Amino acid sequence: MNLIIIKLGGSAITKKSENKAETNKKLLHNICVDVSKIKGKKIIVHGAGAYGHKPVKEFKINNGIKTEKQVHGFTETRASVQKLNNEVMQELIKCGINAVSVNPFDVIIQNNKKISYFDLTKIKKLLELNCVPVLFGDMVLDKSLKASVVSGDAIVPFLAKKLNAEKVLLGTDVNGLFTNDPKKNKKAKHISELNNSNYNEIIKGIKKASTVDVTGGMKGKIDKIKKELKGIKTIVFDLKKKGNILKAINEKTGTKILFK
Ligand code: ADP
What's the pLDDT score for residue 210? Predict the structure, then answer.
């Protein structure tokens, strides 16, 4: 299937670095305009950004829910990420995209923070209808931890592998991979390509995340891509720059990742 999976990073679409559950409205609009220009079958997965990471930290629910307060935190987190999803959906539809939200809570079950069940029926049917399924970083039921966070970065490779995606576009707030965190080290050098031959050298400079991220940040992304996305080209790029999604599709920006 000629399918493209587009991840809208929480660090770009929300005010993640300020730890505020707010969207960057103008940016979100520009992104949706760009997405509307992409032809063919596509799935959108957006991060939770501050809408998810903030309550998960506050209620300390990154390792399961035991106390009543944590159960409450779980419900608050779900409500919060759904609020973000509503905002993203409204903008996508306003831009003429036939987007339909697929709630990860409804289709995924995890075991010890890993996806153990994922019902793809609705996603496949929506693609047949030429609709764009939209998923997002969420909290789902977990066989051993009662509930756990499923990140957009875990959903993307899972879907790409199962649905045999042609390409994965990972939009974030930096223009791909650098020799070090570019937000902390001004001398960090851009890496144009990551593959099996330079992986060991480059991974040393890739950190988790400097923000409220609870799902592994950049390091988590690369680990999952290496493990699950063999043979599928992934582009990590700066979603904050207008027109960059279209450039990323043509591999004219960001970092190209391809593992064998
Ligand atoms: P998102 O929420 O968009 O998915 P994350 O916050 O999880 O993004 O990860 C992106 C962040 O990773 C960037 O903002 C950057 O500060 C950080 N990072 C750490 N190390 C690196 C590196 N070597 N190259 C690029 N980014 C890095």
Answer: 61
Distance 40 CA to ligand 1 centre (A): 29
Pick the CATH number of 3-165 from 3.40.190.10, 3.30.565.10, 3.40.1160.10, 3.90.226.10: 3.40.1160.10
C-alpha Rg value of the chain to the nearest Å:
17
What is the arithmetic mean of pLDDT over 4-8? 98
pLDDT band at 209; cut points 50, 70, 90:
low
pTM > 0.85: yes or no:
yes
Residues with CB under 6 A from ligand 1: 9-12, 16, 47, 172-174, 177-178, 180-183, 205-207, 209-211, 213, 217-218
Helices (H) and strands (E) in the chain, counts: 10, 16
Whose Cα sits closest to atom 15 in ligand 1? 181
